[in-house]
Recover the amino acids of this structure.
């Protein structure tokens, strides 16, 4: 099986998580962040699948943006799920700020192809029949890494605080 069909199979498997949520999780309790996480993972996998099948750089970059649309929200969903499991709740404005940060991160990513802020250049190459997108990173690309690291620090902090309270 070639790489692009592996991506397609993983995408289809990730789609299965959404009806499974409605079949099993929602019956017991509504957990919208889990549903949103499953949807984001499916979007990321769709983007990767489309990249693998992309015949042009332009289509590969558009597919990459689709993958990032899901990716910017995955850490948010994970943080909110971990927070809830650890007994923390947040005011609505905190949700708004975190969603706003994800939207800003995605907007930065969407400059690709128009400005050289996120990627300075991109090319594609066929490897074993699948398209591989090669990127040169721009000055704003490290913001995504910082964004992800901050979420993971937040998750670890919430878990640590929760464990400290339960001693």
């Amino acid at each position: 099986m070639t790489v692009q069909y592996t991506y397609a199979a993983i995408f289809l498997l990730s789609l299965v998580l959404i009806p499974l949520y409605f079949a099993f999780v929602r019956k017991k309790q509504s957990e919208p962040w889990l549903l949103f996480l499953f949807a984001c993972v499916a979007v990321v996998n769709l983007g990767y699948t489309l990249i693998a099948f992309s015949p042009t750089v332009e289509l590969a970059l558009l597919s990459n943006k689709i993958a990032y649309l899901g990716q910017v929200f995955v850490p948010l969903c994970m943080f909110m799920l971990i927070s809830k499991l650890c007994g923390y709740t947040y005011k609505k404005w905190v949700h708004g700020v975190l969603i706003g940060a994800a939207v800003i991160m995605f907007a930065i990513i969407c400059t690709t192809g128009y400005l050289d802020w996120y990627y300075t250049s991109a090319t594609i190459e066929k490897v074993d029949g699948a398209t591989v997108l090669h990127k040169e990173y721009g000055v704003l690309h490290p913001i995504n890494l910082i964004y992800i690291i901050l979420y993971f620090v937040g998750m670890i902090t919430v878990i640590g605080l929760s464990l400290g309270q339960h001693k």
